[in-house]
Amino acid sequence: MKLKSIEISGFKSFADKTEIKFQNGITGIVGPNGSGKSNITEAIRWVMGEQSAKSLRGGKMPDVIFSGTETRKPLARASVTAIFDNTDHFLKSEFSEVMISRKLYRNGESQYQINRNDCRLRDILNLFIDTGLGKESFSIISQGRVESIFSSKPEDRRAIIEEVAGVLEYKQNKIKAENELGKTSEYLKRVNDLINELD
Ligand code: ATP
């Protein structure tokens, strides 16, 4: 699996539609301070489902939409599309090329797509769960992240290791099953109460 390209439009400093194609090997992005290098990695994290505006250096999510300059009006929508080569089917998808898209409008309305079909945020997150590409993984390390990993609480550090080790999916399924069990016990209690009343 490999990130083939990313298309950014109206996201942060990328007012115009900008396509970046990643070739084989290592890609380095160079540019003066403030030219938008970090915005590219943030666009990648955003399209993969990042939900924390703070971790994208904003106050609220619509802050990622191009906010205008002296010569240009703000835009109403941010849109990012990423295309992955999935010929090895590393991502849980039957397709050998997986395209994910995310759009956000100023009114807060958002849209997620996988291979041009509307989907839920959960579907995008599920695509990357336990691949080591999740938002808590080491695959994207932003500025200041190394220090924050070392100074984080042991349980937060454990969550990072669990994501990389691929056990997060099982843990989430366990929590879901435990919640269901809890609900079922409640129902059983209620049924027993009713039976007792009838007796
Ligand atoms: P450095 O080398 O200093 O880390 P960089 O190349 O990584 O810089 P970024 O941090 O990616 O640069 O980009 C910062 C620029 O993005 C700033 O000029 C900022 O004004 C601009 N920017 C951030 N959010 C928006 C937005 N919503 N609309 C327009 N421009 C934005």
Automatic annotation (TrEMBL):
Secretion signal span: none
Location(s), subcellular: Cytoplasm
Ligand binding (ATP): 32-39
UniProt record similarity statement: Belongs to the SMC family.
Comment, domains: Contains large globular domains required for ATP hydrolysis at each terminus and a third globular domain forming a flexible hinge near the middle of the molecule. These domains are separated by coiled-coil structures.
Function description: Required for chromosome condensation and partitioning.
Assembly, per entry: Homodimer.
Name this protein carries in UniProt: Chromosome partition protein Smc
Organism: Pediococcus claussenii (strain ATCC BAA-344 / DSM 14800 / JCM 18046 / KCTC 3811 / LMG 21948 / P06)
Full-sequence range covered: 1 to 199 of 1182
